[in-house]
RNA sequence: CGGGGCGUAGCGCAGCCCGGUUAGCGCGCCUGCUUCGGGAGCAGGAGGUCGGUGGUUCAAAUCCACUCGCCCCGACCA
């Protein structure tokens, strides 16, 4: 415990999954609940989600979408309407069959009042929203219909991991209806870009935009696009998806409109979503061996002020000074709103107090004690440099430059993440190199290895299955960037000519 | 759901193989004193139906059976 070099044990290199769990605990983001597979998101974790929500919501509104809310329960028959959709979700649905509890023989409560038709707790809302949309859409004048909902959903997962995959999770689902295929496609790609822009500029998380293969796409979609990010263990995190649903759900839910040409037509729909999984992404992209590292644009706090009290008689003086600085900082605008500042006056030893905030990932810590007051300085530490490092700045200068400092932290986080992605993305041309790349040297206790492979690949479900079995590697996406690149190459497995380059990787 | 690991104080663990006094240790928590640019030191203290149920036994944290939960890997998925 003494002489400990870093706050989180094990380190990322020692045991990445365990490190992830420990960061969540150390930063007090969330904890497991009495309900299997469900987590409790604690205030620090939830305020990160609130910030994500706020930024995305702004972008959704800017692109013309409106929020609405649809029921948690979906009649079972609704889910049955779209064949592929049923097949995709049937295995993981929570089903409500009763609406009352009665006293049982042994004093416990037993379900009673069986429902005529079971209700499914939404695993996603295409079907119930579709049912409403079919009423709302009558004419081409009603289109496009651009709706979003912020909600919780339930998918009964076998194996759960906090933030990355829990039985219940929070998300946002956009659902839109369009008159033409072209408009629906544009919407699908527009929202994919909104996600990518948010992730890069606010989360400081570079992503690869791409199209999913047949085997990876959303049940019921014609085309699924996703944004894929690389975590520090070099595994891929599908961070958001945007689906072009064609007329599949319009037909299933009877969404028809009378067009200008007086003909009754099925509409084209899209859906797109991101979830609390993004918080997991944030942890795994930026976290270090001292805990969470938050990008300033999404951090619940920008600056935490740590009063230093060498002696209790300085207490009032130091606290007052800290409050004054907080007040001044709070007038400074960063990212279109006032800086969020907190003075930690809690009665815990100074060293521990500092480490608590390091673990929580606050971008800037400043220490203020009698010495700083006398010299009109502050001692500044930034979270993207080692916890021991700090520098002294004149108070006025620090306050004035705080937004610049935050921008610099935001940028350095992005740069580091981009370097990770670039450095661990390899172009590979042969099957042998491919297998070598994805095989750890230590099979017993695999070290962090692999990454993304960019290679020519001719779509083939058999081969996809094989590499999934052999290496646990799948096709993350077909990058949009590469789609325009019309140079022909040879498939790395079959040697067949193809113009399609794909990204392979292990995935969360 | 398959394979592996683990459930003993809030957290991390020892004890279990070879059953036997009041079940320990570190961190945290509470109180006091001392410290005070620091993940404090000393002293005292609170806190456990040893995951649960049943069995074997004079005696079970320890042996047996069943069960529940958690973590990792796999299948599946945002």
Summarize the structure in words.
This protein has 15 helices and 27 strands. It folds into three domains: 16-286, BirA Bifunctional Protein, domain 2, CATH 3.30.930.10; 301-405, Anticodon-binding domain (Rossmann fold, 3-Layer(aba) Sandwich); 425-505, 2-Layer Sandwich (Translation Initiation Factor IF3), CATH 3.30.110.30. A hairpin with a 6-residue loop joins β25 (489-490) and β26 (497-498). α2 (43-62) packs across α6. An eleven-stranded mixed β-sheet has the order 3-7-8-14-11-10-9-24-27-23-22, sandwiched between helices. The chain has 508 residues and is an alpha+beta fold. The longest helix has 29 residues, at 395-423. It binds one RNA strand of 78 nucleotides through residues 1-2, 4, 7, 15, 17-18, 21, 25, 32, 36, 88, 91-92, 124, 153, 155, 157-159, 164-165, 169, 171, 226, 237-241, 273-278, 308-312, 349-356, 367, 369-371, 379, 446, 468, 472, 507-508.
Give a summary of the structure in a few sentences.
Helix content is 34%, strand content 27%.
Task: State the fourth-level CATH superfamily of the largest domain.
Answer: Bira Bifunctional Protein, Domain 2
Strand content: 25-35%
Distance N to C terminus: 33 Å
Given as residue ranges, the uncertain stretches (5+ residues, pLDDT < 50) are none
The CATH topology of the largest domain comes to BirA Bifunctional Protein, domain 2
Q: Provide the helix percentage.
A: 25-40%
The beta-strand count equals 27
């Amino acid at each position: 415990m003494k002489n400990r070099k870093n706050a989180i044990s094990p380190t990322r290199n020692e045991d990445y999954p365990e490190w992830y769990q420990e960061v969540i605990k150390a930063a007090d983001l969330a904890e497991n609940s009495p309900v299997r597979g469900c987590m409790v998101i604690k205030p620090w974790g939830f305020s990160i989600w609130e910030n994500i929500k706020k930024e995305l919501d702004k972008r959704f509104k800017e692109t013309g979408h409106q929020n609405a809310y649809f029921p948690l329960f979906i009649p079972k028959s609704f889910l049955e309407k779209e064949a592929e959709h049923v097949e995709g979700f049937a295995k993981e649905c929570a089903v409500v069959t009763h609406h009352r509890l009665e006293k049982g023989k042994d004093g416990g409560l037993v379900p009673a009042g069986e429902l005529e038709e079971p209700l499914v707790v939404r695993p996603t809302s295409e079907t119930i929203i579709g049912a409403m949309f079919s009423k709302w859409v009558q004419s081409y004048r009603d289109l496009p219909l651009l709706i979003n909902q912020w909600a919780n959903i339930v998918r009964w997962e076998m194996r759960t991991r906090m933030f990355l995959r829990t039985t219940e999770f929070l998300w946002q689902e956009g659902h839109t209806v369009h008159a033409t295929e072209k408009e629906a496609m544009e919407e699908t790609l527009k929202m994919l870009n909104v996600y990518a822009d948010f992730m890069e500029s606010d989360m400081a998380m570079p992503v690869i935009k791409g199209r999913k293969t047949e085997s990876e796409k959303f049940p019921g979609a014609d085309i699924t696009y996703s944004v894929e990010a690389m975590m520090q263990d070099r595994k891929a995190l599908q961070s958001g998806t945007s689906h072009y649903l064609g007329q599949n759900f319009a037909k299933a839910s009877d969404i028809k409109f009378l067009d200008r040409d007086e003909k009754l037509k099925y509409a084209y729909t899209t859906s797109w979503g991101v979830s609390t999984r993004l918080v997991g992404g944030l942890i795994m992209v930026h976290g270090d061996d001292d805990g969470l590292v938050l990008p300033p644009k999404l951090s619940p706090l920008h600056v935490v002020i740590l009063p230093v009290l060498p002696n209790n008689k300085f207490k009032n003086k130091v606290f007052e000074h800290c409050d004054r600085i907080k007040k001044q900082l709070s007038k400074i605008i960063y990212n279109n709103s006032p800086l969020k500042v907190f003075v930690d006056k809690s009665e815990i030893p100074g060293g521990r107090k500092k480490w608590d905030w390091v673990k929580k990932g606050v971008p800037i810590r400043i220490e203020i004690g009698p010495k700083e007051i006398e010299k009109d300085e502050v001692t500044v530490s930034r979270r993207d440099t080692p916890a021991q490092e700090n520098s002294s700045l004149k108070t006025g200068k620090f306050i004035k430059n705080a937004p610049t400092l935050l921008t610099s932290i935001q940028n350095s986080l992005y740069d580091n993440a981009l370097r990770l992605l670039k450095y661990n993305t390899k172009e590979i041309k042969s099957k042998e190199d491919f297998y070598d790349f994805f095989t750890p040297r230590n099979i017993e206790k695999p070290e962090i290895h692999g990454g993304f492979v960019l290679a020519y690949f001719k779509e083939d479900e058999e081969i996809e299955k094989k590499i999934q079995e052999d290496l646990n590697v799948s096709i993350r996406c077909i990058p949009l960037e590469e789609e325009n690149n019309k140079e022909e190459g040879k498939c790395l497995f079959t040697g067949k000519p193809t113009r399609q380059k794909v990204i392979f990787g292990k995935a969360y």
